Amino acid sequence: MSETGQSWLDGVRPYMQRAPLTALCLGISSGFPFALLAATLTNRLADAGIEKKSISAFALALLVYSFKWIWAPVIDRARLPVLADMLGQRRSWLWVCGVATALAVMVLGLADPAADMRSVVIGALLLGFAGATFDIVIDAYRIELLKPEQLGIGSGMSQYGWRLGAFFAASIALAVANVSSWTLGYIACMPFAFAGPVASLFAGEPERHHVPPPTRGFGEALGAVIAPLKDFFQRQGAFLVLLFVLIHKIGDTIANLMIRDLLVTLGFTKPEILAGDVWVGFFALLVGIFVGGILYARLGMQRSVLVSLILMAVSNLSFAGLAATGHSMPMLAFTIGFENFASGIGGVTVVAYLSALCDLRFTATQFALLSAGAAILGRFITGTTAGALIEGLGYVDFYLLTTLLALPGILLFWWMMRAGLIEASVGSAGVEE
User: Fold this and answer.
1) Are 232 and 69 in contact, with CB atoms under 8 Å apart?
2) What is 18-430's CATH topology?
3) CA-based angle 119:257:154, to the nearest 5?
4) Radius of gyration of the chain (CA)
5) pTM
6) First to last CA, the chain
7) How buried is residue 6: exposed, middle or buried, by Cβ count under 10 Å (0-12/13-18/19+)?
8) What is the pLDDT of residues 77-123, one digit of tens each?
9) Which residues does 4 contact at the CB level (< 8 Å), separation at least 6?
10) Which of 163, 139, 152 is nearest to 369 (CA)?
């Protein structure tokens, strides 16, 4: 075999290992319910003629994801009768949450926004809670399954999976809705809930999982909540790390949650959205994730995260350009392509950093806190004021504002790098045992 061929195989081999491949399947199960709650539901409500303020308010259903750390200690400690003995703690929760998420997708699919908005609200909240709980155990299982040196690759594969799940769910729901109904479109997406649980049957229970002692009484239950937080906040620079987590994605989150409403407002049809948003975005994201893996390997965690933050901020300017241009397929393709390329890089680097922050004794709780915090402010602003901001400012100025909102996170991370707080904040998941 040639030296070039051998080099290519050496580069691909780490991605073909059991743990990264399992992370890919876990990502599929994580991404599809979020897609059905975000852009797809926005598209569905806009089709039904629901006003912008009401559409943006549905971002509050995604806000459930931002509070998942509250019940994450249950996932860390509670053992499910019978199933835990058969599958292990992590895998038993994977299967229960997978079934619950599939059923919640069906409930939301059966709801009709034109006839009964209350049923849509109930369905969205159910899917938000089921999907958020699913994410808790998915993230904990992934981090514990991956070795420290696999966190970059595993995060990349997880992001590939997340985007595959979101891509296929958005594509199938939109395509089926175009020829039949949104209800059938949602129901057709239910099988994606089982990609992760099925993969776990082959991967096994993670060796790095620390089995917690049984919780007895209110005092120990309260301690199960406090201990992960205490461990994190005792680290050097912990409050600045948490501040970074809270603010670094504000602009990006607000921009993305309202993109489908912008496209409908500009007169893009379902087939145009499918081609220009879903398809172009999907392939641009795959390239971004690949580039993100290279940057993480060559620049290291700190510098690669900083580069991704800058790119994600700049990508918001392209949304303003699309809003100013109007109905233009080339501009739509460029906007979605650039945004997804930047998000792909950020998905690898930032998720790897957040994963490395966890202590293996409290994986579910700490990653739930960090990942939930990463989007809570953006989702809250979107759900409460984004619609009014768009109506008051217009889409061009709205997306310029989202660009400005990204700057504080960039500046804070740069300062943390110079102060040595990034490496000081890493937990046991990011170091060899």
Assistant:
1) no
2) Growth Hormone; Chain: A; (1.20.1250)
3) 105
4) 21
5) 0.76
6) 37
7) exposed
8) 888 889 988 998 899 999 999 999 999 999 988 988 777 778 888 88
9) none
10) 139
